[in-house]
TrEMBL record:
It holds the Pfam family MatE. Keywords: Cell membrane, Membrane, Transmembrane, Transmembrane helix, Transport. One of its GO terms (cellular component) is plasma membrane. GO terms for molecular function: antiporter activity; xenobiotic transmembrane transporter activity. It is found in: Cell membrane. It comes from Paenibacillus abyssi. It comes from the Bacteria. It is a multi-pass membrane protein. PANTHER family: MULTIDRUG AND TOXIN EFFLUX PROTEIN MATE FAMILY, VIRULENCE FACTOR MVIN. This is MATE family efflux transporter. InterPro entries: MATE_fam (IPR002528), MdtK-like (IPR048279), YsiQ (IPR047135). The chain crosses the membrane at residues 12-36, 56-77, 89-112, 132-153, 165-186, 192-219, 239-267, 287-307, 319-337, 349-366, 387-407, 413-435.
Length: 468
């Protein structure tokens, strides 16, 4: 094995891929937590608006993440099989398409924010705040599209550190501007929630500029301005083949969360605020597990592209074992210190009591979520995205949403009942993904194809050393 091949292989080890993703996710979540913590100093109504708006934005993100996610997996596969030029073309096409989608979303959110908020049953008292926040942050949705695509592309080349560094800088700017606008510090105007929205857009703009600079040098052949005209219909079909089920699955998850938010809105502002605070704390709980799941997706896609199917198969189980330990410990720590942590966000004892009850259930939720993330992402890395889509749609709408209404609203179990249904959904999807991975359908198909291609050809001396 040449020095160049060893360096390429080392880029795709689980640890080297996972820890920068973890830092990046941690800082992104910190950005969200800082938003919630600082906005809570304005009012619980403002917190409810930010929580609802962010859920809405995540739902809309699936429109461009369909392309970005499919492109990311395909880029890792192409690089694994030594087709760097194809990977570069895929990256450019993904960027162009997602920017167009982002522009359309920005215009819509800027023009009719109040109507959108009212459509999802947000209470009348929250509509003025929602109108301000959605118009400003939603108006910058094109920046979110660019950031998501550029980060995904760069990470799937094996360079997970660059997005991490940018996340650090973005958080520093965001925290500074949040403090300045909310409290009127350093000569800034005291603009409250409007200031938080402006801070979000400005920090994302700066991050996008840096990501573009890194993007143009992400491949062996530097990307020039004229290259943005590139389009390859065959490769784009490959992206869509992997990407559209991912997009449907992601949109299904986020839209079910939006529906569940409408259930919470029916229950009351306290339940909506409690769930928003819990989302923040829960995110810190599972983010290391999620970073492992994202890392193993990149690793398995690269191994699969290189034809190293046995290593790809075992990598999923190793990532799952590590992830289960991590999320279980995190969930336990969160439960032990839960009341104190919730007290940082609000002094409302009813909201704190609701949050603490959810933290107990979180001990059960997190292992199921890790099972679902690790095995689902592993299947996606092979291109088996239709399976995860079908399982996701059925489970999320029938269990996480439909059963949530029956148990939480109709039977009167409230927020705890809704949370129990969300737990059941994670375990159903995770269990089915585990069964599918154990079946090795896509891996067997790849092995048969390799055997046919090498029939009558001397066996390769390819190294069988494992990637860890």
């Amino acid at each position: 094995m040449t020095l160049e091949n060893k360096q390429e292989k080392n880029k795709f080890t689980l640890w080297l891929l996972a820890w920068p993703i973890f830092i990046e996710l941690f800082l992104q979540l910190l950005l969200g937590a800082v938003d919630i913590l600082m906005v809570s100093r304005i009012s619980d109504d403002a917190v409810a608006v930010v929580g609802f708006s962010n859920t809405l934005f995540h739902a809309l993100m699936t429109l461009f993440m369909t392309i970005a996610s499919g492109a990311g997996i395909l880029i890792a596969q192409k690089l694994g099989s030594g087709k760097g030029a194809d990977a570069r073309t895929i990256a450019i096409m993904a960027f162009n398409v997602t920017v167009l989608i982002g522009i359309v979303l920005s215009v819509i959110l800027y023009l009719i924010p109040r109507k959108i908020a009212a459509l999802f049953q947000l209470s009348e008292q929250l509509l003025p705040l929602a109108e301000v926040y959605i118009s400003i942050v939603g108006g910058g949705m094109v920046l979110t599209a660019m950031m998501a695509t550029l980060s995904t592309v760069i990470r799937n080349t094996g360079n997970t550190k660059a997005p991490m560094y940018i996340a650090i800088g973005m958080n520093i700017v965001h925290v500074f501007l949040n403090y300045a606008f909310i409290y009127g510090a350093f000569g800034f105007p005291q603009w409250g929630l409007t200031g938080v929205a402006i801070s979000t857009v400005v920090s994302r703009l700066l991050a996008t500029v840096l990501l573009v600079i890194m993007f143009v040098g992400a491949f062996e052949q530097r990307i020039a301005w004229s290259d943005f005209k590139l389009f390859n219909g065959k490769l784009f079909k490959e992206v869509l083949k992997i990407g559209w089920p991912l997009g449907v699955n992601m949109s299904s998850w986020v839209f079910t969360q939006l529906v569940i938010f409408t259930f919470l809105a029916v229950l009351g502002t306290q339940e909506l605020a409690a769930r928003t605070y819990m989302n923040t704390l829960e995110s810190f709980c599972f983010m290391l597990g999620y970073s492992i799941a994202l890392a193993v997706q990149i690793q398995i896609a690269h191994l699969f592209g290189a034809g190293r199917t046995k290593e790809a198969y075992s990598s999923a189980y190793r990532a799952l074992r590590i992830g289960l330990i991590v999320v279980s410990v995190n969930a336990l720590l969160l439960y032990v210190f839960g009341s104190q942590l919730l007290g940082l966000f609000t002094s409302d004892q009813e909201i704190i009591a609701l949050g603490v009850s959810l933290l107990g259930l979180n001990l059960v939720l997190q292992p199921g979520k890790m099972l679902n993330m690790a095995l689902g992402n592993s299947l996606n890395a092979l291109g088996d995205t239709r399976f995860t889509m079908i399982v996701g749609i059925l489970s999320m709408w029938l269990i996480a949403t439909g059963l949530s209404y029956v148990v939480g609203i109709h039977m009167g179990w409230g927020l705890v009942g809704i949370y129990l249904c969300m737990i059941a959904d994670e375990y159903v999807r995770g269990g089915l993904s585990l069964y599918r991975w154990h079946d090795r359908k896509y891996l067997k198909r790849a092995e048969q194809k390799q055997a046919q291609q090498t029939l009558g050809v001397p066996k390769s001396t390819q190294s069988s050393s494992s990637v860890v």
